[in-house]
Specification:
Elements (H helix, E strand, L loop, with lengths): L1 H17 L22 H14 L6 H31 L3 H10 L5 H16 L3 H29 L25 H16 L3 H20 L5 H27 E8 L2 E8 L2
Antiparallel strand pairs: 1-2
Length: 273
């Protein structure tokens, strides 16, 4: 896990090194109170992290309803579905199911990193703005999800993994296991949502989320997570990535810059897509 986190920092530096030429370098309306010459990658990480964690104060009724039904699904799974689902999967394990799990599980770990690195390469070398956007949004979202949210919840809940044999209701905060939520699933859905939010094509969204869903299946097939762990990871990954993509899309869309030419002062408005 430490090596995986370090690898994300490397991708972050790669994005940051090009940020002055890319999508995060210009002051925006949101930055008007805090002027800066170049609003680069690490400024984006800090700003997005703050916005993600303060977003609940701006939620409307529909947002609270969405959180409520998702929380109810996770709680219902813990109470009613986790153990039956685990028993079913373990009874029906086969060489074929193991091969599927082995193929897709890395998309929640090293393959996720490779995917973001690929988008960064295409975006910067090939001058592809949408690919650059995926690289930025996915990397920032992954740092928030995998670096803050998931570790914090794992520590708070201390849930035992299925293969520990303690049952689905064994929670020991600040000293127990690390089952809830599934970090692999959260990472897979973070990348999937970052892609879907920038490439608005149904088949791309379907493919991205299908791969992410199979990562969750792989974690249950390998007896590393309960169904509720996977569901929570999916909701967290999608939620963070969608919020980050929305924030960054707003900044990419409109930039306000001071203008002074031939003694005339004003503001230049730049719109990008």
């Amino acid at each position: 896990m430490k090596a995986f986190a370090t690898a994300y920092v490397v991708v972050g530096f790669a994005v940051a090194a090009h940020s002055a030429k890319g999508f995060a370098q210009e002051p925006t309306a949101a930055d008007a109170a805090t002027p800066c010459e170049f609003c680069g990658f690490w400024k984006t990480v800090g700003t997005d992290t703050r916005e993600v964690f303060t977003e609940p104060v701006r939620w409307q009724g529909s947002d609270w309803r969405s959180v409520a039904w998702k929380s109810a699904l996770v709680a219902g799974s813990i109470a009613l579905l986790d153990e039956p689902t685990r028993d079913y999967l373990q009874r029906h394990r086969s060489d074929g199911s193991q091969r599927v799990a082995d193929v897709f599980e890395p998309f929640g770990a090293e393959y996720a990193l490779g995917t973001l690195a690929g988008f960064a390469l295409v975006g910067f070398v090939g001058d592809h703005p949408t690919a650059r956007a995926v690289a930025l949004d996915g990397t920032v979202s992954s740092l928030i999800t995998g670096g803050i949210v998931v570790p914090m919840l794992k520590a708070l809940t201390g849930r035992s993994r299925p293969h520990d044999g303690q049952g689905a209701h064994d929670f020991n905060g600040f000293g127990g296991g690390e089952s809830f939520p599934s970090g692999h699933t959260a990472e897979a859905f973070t990348v999937a949502a970052s892609i879907a939010e920038n490439y608005h094509r149904p088949w791309i969204s379907a493919l991205s989320y299908s791969v992410a869903g199979l990562v969750g299946y792989a974690r249950m097939e390998h007896d590393d997570h309960w169904l509720s762990d996977v569901a929570a990871g999916a909701f967290i990954g999608m939620g963070v990535a969608k919020q980050v993509s929305k924030l960054n899309r707003t900044r990419r869309g409109i930039a306000f810059m001071p203008l002074e030419e031939q003694g005339v002062r004003g503001i230049r408005i730049s719109v990008s897509f």
